[in-house]
């Protein structure tokens, strides 16, 4: 609002200076230079008004966006957040021991049962495995490399 009054006053002064000038003024005349000075003042005033408006808008919009994001975080609970993706369900069939262990974790079988003993053997084999290479059950490394 402050800039609006200054701009109106500046515009009025430019109109008065233009009315006092002859139809074809000399560019070196004092009246012409005075009007150019008024135009320069007006453009400076417009630039500062735009900068002030831009600064006010950015600070306000940043605050509004921050408030909106905080409200959204409060509205969401842990159940609505996406679960992290895992590749294990996609490749578990490639590792039979790990597949059996993962399947057994979902059941409440006794470890003394046949399935429980198989899972314990799988866990034990994973613990003692050196993980340098995967072999078929009947194959072993030849000179430290896959056959």
Please give a handful of descriptors for the protein shown:
2 domains, 64% helix, single chain, 147 residues, mainly alpha
Topology overview:
Layout: H1 2-20, H2 30-75, H3 88-91, H4 96-105, H5 114-128
> Compute the gyration radius: what is it?
40 Å
Global shape: rod-shaped
| Biggest sheet details | none
SS class: mainly alpha
The percentage helix is 55-70%
Q: Give the SSE order as H and E letters.
A: HHHHH
How much of the residues is beta strand, in percent?
under 5%
Overall pLDDT: 79
Number of domains: 2
List the total number of helices: 5
Low-confidence stretches: none
Span from first to last CA? 85 Å
The gist of it:
The protein folds into two domains: 2-76; 87-147, no CATH class. 64% of the residues lie in helices and 0% in strands.
Can you describe this structure?
- This protein is an all-alpha fold.
- The chain folds into two domains: 2-76; 87-147, no CATH class.
- The chain is built from five helices and no strands.
- α1 runs antiparallel to α2 and α4 crosses α5.
- It is rod-shaped and about 110 Å long.
- The N and C termini lie far apart (85 Å).
- The model has no long low-confidence stretch (mean pLDDT 79).
């Amino acid at each position: 609002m402050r800039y609006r009054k200054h701009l109106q006053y500046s515009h009025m002064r430019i109109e008065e200076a233009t009315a006092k000038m002859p139809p074809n003024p000399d560019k070196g005349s004092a009246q012409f230079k005075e009007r150019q000075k008024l135009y320069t003042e007006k453009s400076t005033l417009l630039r500062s008004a735009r900068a002030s408006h831009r600064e006010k808008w950015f600070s306000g919009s940043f605050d509004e966006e921050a408030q909106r994001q905080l409200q959204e975080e409060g509205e969401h609970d842990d159940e609505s957040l996406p679960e992290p993706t895992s590749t294990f369900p996609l490749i578990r069939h490639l590792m039979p021991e790990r597949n059996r262990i993962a399947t057994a974790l979902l059941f409440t079988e006794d470890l003394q049962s046949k399935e429980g003993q198989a899972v314990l053997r799988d866990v034990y084999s994973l613990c003692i495995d050196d993980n340098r290479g995967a072999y078929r059950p009947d194959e072993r490394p030849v000179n430290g490399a896959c056959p």
